[in-house]
Structures are given as C-alpha cells and as structure tokens.
Amino acid sequence: MRRPTSIAPPKGELGVLTPGMGAVSTTFMAGVELVRKGAAAPIGSMTQLGTIRLGKRTQHRSPLIREFVPLETLDNLVFGGWDIFPDTAYEAAVKAGVLEPLHLEEVKGLLGSIRPMTAAFDQAYVKRLNGTHVKHAKTKFDLAQQIKDDIQHFKKETGVQRLVMVWCGSTEVFLSPSEVHADPARFENAMKTNHPSIAPSMLYAWAAITSGVPFANGAPNLTADIPALQELAREHNVPLCGKDFKTGQTLLKTILAPGFKARMLGLRGWFSTNILGNRDGEVLDDPGSFKTKEESKLGVLEYILQPQLYPQLYDKICHKVRIHYYPPRGDNKEGWDNIDIFGWLGYPMQIKVNFLCRDSILAAPIVLDLVLFMDLAQRAGLRGIQEWLSFYFKSPMCAPQLYPEHDLFIQSMKLKNTLRWMMGEDLITHLGAEYYD
CA 386: distance to chain centroid? Predict the structure, then answer.
C-alpha cells in the first residue's frame, strides 16, 4: 500500500448513517451529544482519549491521537439511519434501557429529532423480529436503489459533505459465500432475481459502496466479506472494514489468550456462556442467527493460539460458546468463562471469569472510532479492506490470501503503526535503545 502524499482536510460536516437504530446506535449518538455538551467523558474511545508514541522514548513525544492525525471533530457529526420500527432515536433509547433517564433527558432534543428511514428488511434473515417500518419493492435490487436514494436525500437535506455508514443492525442467519458473491456482475444479477444468498445487510453495503460511502460492519453477518463487494470498494475508492464489534467476552479472550501463548501455557478447554436480554439476545435466540454469531466467536482462539505451530499445547482444545436470551438482564450482558489450562509437566490449572458488562456501553465508542478512522482512511485515499482496524472486530476481514489477526496487542500495534505511516513518522518496533531508540 502506497503512503498517502497528503490527507485531505475534514471540510464541512460528516454524516453518520446507521442501519439499525437500536441500543448500540442510540447509545453512540447520545454519548457523542453528552460529550459535546461537556456532560460526560468519551471513555473507551481511542480516537478521543488515546495517545501515540512518536520517535525515541527519550524524546517524550506522545500526543493525543486526535491531535496527531486530522480526525473530524465531534461537533461536526450529524446522525441518521434506518430501522424496522418507526421510533425516534429518543424513543428507541428509552426502550433499550441502556442509559439513565438523567442522561437521556439531557439529549432528548437531539435524539427526538432523529427519525429512522424505512428499512430494507426480510424476516427470513432475522426470524425473531417482525418489522413494521419497512420498504417494499419487487426486487432486492430495487430495495438497494431505494437505500441509495435515502443516502442522497440525507446528504442533501442535512448539507453534510461526507458520509460513513456503520451497520448496527441485528445478526442475520448464517450464510456461506456462494457463486453469486464472486463478482459485481453476478451479485447485481442476484439482487435482481431475489436470490436467497443476498441478505438485507448486503443491500446496505452495496448501496454505500456504490455511493462512495465507507462501510463498516458491526455484526457477524457475511455482508461485505465477499469478493463482489470488496472489488466494488476498490473500484469506487471506498474503505471497508468488519466484522462484529469486539465488546464483551471475546474482548477478554483476545486479551487472555495471547498471554497464555506468550508464556507457552497449554489450553485444554474454554467454555463460554452468555445471558442477555436486549434485542440482540432475542435475535440470537433463533438457531440460524446464533450460528452466525457462533462462527464469529469460535474462530478467535484458533487464530491466536495457532495449534498447527504448537500442537503439544493447543491441538485438542475443547471450545464451546453458548448464548441464552434472558429478558431480565436487558442490555447488561453477563458472560461466564471456565478456562482449563496446564503448565509445567502438564499440571492442570483453572481460571474462572465472570464479566458483568454493558454491551452497548462497550460498543458505542467502537462505533465512534470506526466513523472517525474510516473517514480519515477515505480522505487519505485508502480503499478496500482496512485491516488496520481489526482491533475493533471479533472476526476481522482480511485479504483472501491472509489469515485474520486476532491478538489484541498485535492489532493495537498495527493500528498505531498505520497512523504513524500515514503521517510519515517512523514505525515503532520496540527493538530497544541500543538498536533503535
């Protein structure tokens, strides 16, 4: 990849479009507005709070990331989106129950003014939901064209100069790549013939990419992880990233597993179970949607631990993941992990983890960072899969000839080194003072 000779400045306002205006997207919107008002802090956001070391340690150069690269400011973000229910963002946030009434009242003016556009929806792909605020058309291609019209209408109505789309909708049933995903022509024909391998999320991705809008996939759906849309992203000079926001249990796995591997500790089994009661939990109560999520969560350990390189330690891991819909928990997901490891001479040990997390509270800053970094990527002339943003995903997209990097610490290094590379700074290798520092 060629280093950008220059990065276009962030002129005008940046529109943020979210297919899905439920718990995650409304928590994101409300949080940005609270930060803009000085009523809360952007905890969890690398773009807002993170620093980046530059040059030698002796130089003590560690600026804030938002002061090092030309990111858009929070004041210039404008929100919109689609949903299968007609509730305003405020009404949706109240129903989601993530934020306290005190916080919601502070941002009622903004959230109450955001009404979702009708959504492209098919219950065959999300069986536990029954949308009432939906588009109608003869073909999936027609639906995608309607989404493109929505994008242009939003841009004209709000006056934003640039756009980013982040999928914050539900998990769809499991789909495998097929021949209709192989190239843009076959994909377009499949939309026109209503092929079952074209899911609603793919229509949003196609509409965004062909409209020149960067697209990030926050769910484990296949969506843009197919050759046809990746080719279109390169043709239209659009950045693309995904998939599945890395929030609770998997976040901890990508922190703990690299530690076991670094110390050459063996792993016999890892049993994970979750209970959650939000719309995501309801959707995942369907076996088809759960299969999509399961595939995303199960791949993490295999890629981090590399059993083909360390068969003595990791080739017989028993890895199980369970998710249970339990309405009393609401958005406050609870995850339990039982981890069976072994050490010197094969002696067994156990680790127990009980993570009482707030799913949307962990996801909202991810949405913010992706919006700002994807906008930066486009202004820097980057296109196609943005693997340097793997840090944010459970199942990161990567080039077909590569395997995805899941180690959180390697992902963090790659992200920050990409920012250094963009700005013409030396990459940090941590070789030590006598060699490099």
Answer: 12
The answer to whether the CB of 300 falls within 8 A of the CB of 256 is no
Architecture of 14-245+360-422 per CATH? 3-Layer(aba) Sandwich (3.40)
> What DSSP string describes 209-242?
HHTT--EEE-SSS-TT-SHHHHHHHHHTT-EEEE
24: tokens are 């995650």
Closest CA to 231 of 181, 278, 270, 289: 181
How far apart CA 394 and CA 406 sit, in angstroms, is: 8
What residue spans define the domains of the chain? 14-245+360-422, 249-356
Interatomic CA distance for residues 249 and 273, integer angstroms: 9
CA 338 to chain centroid: 26
The single residue listed with the structure tokens 């993941």 is 321
Residue bearing tokens 């002339």:
381
In 3D space, the residue among 4, 393, 16 whose CA is nearest the CA of residue 213 turns out to be 16
Give, to the nearest 10 degrees, the angle between helix 23-36 and helix 359-379: 70
- Could you please report the per-residue DSSP string of 281-309? HHHHTSHHHHHHHHHHHHHHHHHHH-TTT
Q: What are phi and psi of 134, to 5 degrees?
A: -130, 160
Helices (H), 120-199: 140-158, 184-192
- Terminal alpha carbon distance of the chain: 26
Tens-digit pLDDT profile for residues 35-46: 999 999 999 999
DSSP result, 116-127: PEEBP--TTTST
CATH architecture group of domain 249-356 = 2-Layer Sandwich (3.30)
Q: What pLDDT is recorded for position 288? A: 73
Domains 14-245+360-422 and 249-356 share a fold: no
- Residue 1 is predicted with a pLDDT of 63
The pLDDT assigned to 296 comes to 62
Separation of alpha carbons 7 and 381, rounded Å: 8
The crossing angle, in degrees rounded to 10, of helices 200-210 and 227-235 is 20
In degrees, rounded to 5, the angle at the alpha carbon of residue 238 between the alpha carbons of residues 233 and 244 is: 80
CB neighbour class for 48 (10 Å; exposed up to 12, middle 13-18, buried from 19): buried
Strand 334-342 to 266-276 pairing? antiparallel
Regions of the chain where pLDDT drops below 70 = 1, 292-293, 296-297, 432-437
